[in-house]
Amino acid sequence: MVMERNREESVGVAQFKARLSHYLRQVRRGESLTVLDRETPIARVVPPGPEPGAIRVREPAHSLADFQLPDPLPYSTDSLALLLEDRAKR
Predict the structure, then answer these.
(1) What is the 3-state secondary structure (H, E, C) of the chain?
(2) Greatest pairwise CA separation for the chain in angstroms
(3) 8-57 pLDDT, tens digit each
(4) Pick the residue with more confidence: 4 or 74?
């Protein structure tokens, strides 16, 4: 799911404090917000973005068709022979 980040609103500190939940809902929807102190920008509230080293969690799968299977191996494998070989080593 990709959020749009194209709309930016400016709001004073007092109004931001008074309606904090409202503004945080807007940010959650992908909007950015500039907080002003006497018409001077002092902060920007933006939706979280990917951070370096962050792991992206994909949407849950609902069926096997949602998975992309890897390409077949370039050689044939006898899984029974491998299993018996592994058990013989133990």
Answers:
(1) CCCCCCCEEEEEHHHHHHCHHHHHHHHHCCCEEEEEECCEEEEEECCCCCCCCCCCCCCCCCCHHHCCCCCCCCCCCCHHHHHHHHHHHC
(2) 79
(3) 799 999 999 999 999 999 988 888 999 999 999 999 998 887 766 666 77
(4) 74
pTM, 2 dp: 0.48
* Strand 32-37, strand 40-45: pairing: antiparallel
Residue the block writes with tokens 């133990």:
90
Q: What residues pair up with 34 in beta bridges, in sequence order?
A: 10, 44
Task: For 33, list phi and psi in degrees, rounded to 5.
Answer: -145, 135
